Amino acid sequence: MRYPLRAVILKKFKELPELTDIEPDWSLGPGEVLLEVEMSGLCYRDLLTVDGYFPRTKLPIILGHEIAGKVLRVGDGVISFKPGDRVASLTYIPCGKCRYCKSGNENLCKQRLTFGEDINGSFAQMVKVHERSLVKIPDKVTPEGAAMAACVTGMVLHAFRHVARIKEGESVLITGAGGGVGIHAVQVAKAFGCRVIAATSSEEKLKHILDAGADEVLLSDDKMVENVKRLTDNEGVDVVLEAVGQPTFDKSLRCLAWGGRMVVVGNVTVSSVEVPLGLIILKANSIAGTIAATKRDLEDALRLTAEGKVKPVVTVYPLEKVYDAMEKMRRKESIGRILLKP
Ligand SMILES: [Zn+2]
Ligand SMILES: [Zn+2]
Hints:
- The protein is α/β, with parallel strands linked by helices.
- Helices cover 27% and strands 27% of the residues.
- The protein has helices at 44-50, 99-102, 143-147, 149-163, 180-191, 206-211, 224-231, 246-254, 277-282, 295-306, 322-330, and strands at 5-10, 18-22, 32-42, 61-62, 66-74, 86-89, 92-93, 113-114, 126-130, 134-136, 171-174, 195-200, 216-219, 237-242, 256-264, 286-289, 314-318, 337-341.
- The strands form 4 sheets. Strands 3, 5, 6, 9, 10, 17 and 18 form a 7-stranded mixed β-sheet that branches.
- The longest helix has 15 residues, at 149-163.
- It starts with a strand and ends with a strand.
- It binds zinc ion (2 copies).
C-alpha cells in the first residue's frame, strides 16, 4: 500500500476536483474501519456536488460515496469485520441512535454523514468508514456489483419495495433506462416479477436496455404517453420509476394508471416541475421521493447480484481518468454505471 494516498479532492465548487497525493490521518476511532478501495461508483450526485448544489459540503473533500473494498485495519470494538474481509458500504454513516436508525430506517437519519460531502469518500486508494455502514460481500459478487449495490441496486430496491410497494405482476415504466440507475432498475423490477417498459432519450441505447431484460423499450419523446397507453390497453402503468426528473416528469405522470404510483429518483436538471393537481386527485395517483438504501436493502441488493438477477452493466475507468469519466457522465453517453478503479 502506497503512502501518501492518491485521491480526487474537491477544493472549490464549480472547479474541477484535483487528482493529487495526500497524507491523511489513518488513526482509527472506535468502530472505524480502514478499507483498501477495490472499486468506486461515479454518481450524478458527484457532479452536483462539484457544481455546488450541496453547499454544506465540507471542502476540501475526497469525493465518492459508492464503495466496495477490502478491510485493512479495524478500530476498537469492531468484532463483525476483520482484515481481509470484502465489504460494501452504505453511502453514509448512520448515527445509530435516532428514531430512524432504531427502526431500520437509517436512510432517513438526519445525523448521517455522507461520504464525499460530510466525510472523505472513496475516490482514493483507501477510505475510512464505520462498521455501521458495512456489509460483507458474498463470494460470487464482483467489485463492480458491490460498488453499485448501495446507491444503485439497493436504492432502487428500496424505491420499489418500500416506497412504490410494488407487487408481482404489476407494470412498471422506467425512464432514463439506459443510465446507471435505469438499466439496473430494469433488472430489479424484473426480479420482482413485473412487466417492464423502459424509456430512453437515446436511440442507440434501446438494444442494450432490451438486453438488460426490459419487456418493451421506447423513446421518451413526444409519443411516450401514447406508446405506453398502447402497450397497456390504454390503462397506463402501475408504477413509474422516474430516473430523469423535470424533462420526463409530466409525461411519466400521464403514463400512470388509476391508483398508480410514481417514485422520483432522478433530478438531472435540478429544476422544479408543475404538478396538475386535478389529474393526480382524479386518478388517485401518488408521487413520492426516496433517498438511499438501508443496510437491509444493501444486503438484499448484494443477494440479488449474487443470484445473477442483477448483472452489472458498467464501464470501468482507472482513477487517474476521473476527468474523462466525469465528462462521459455529463454528456450522458455511457450505458450503465461508470466505475472508478484506484
Ligand atoms: Zn451515488
Ligand atoms: Zn440516526
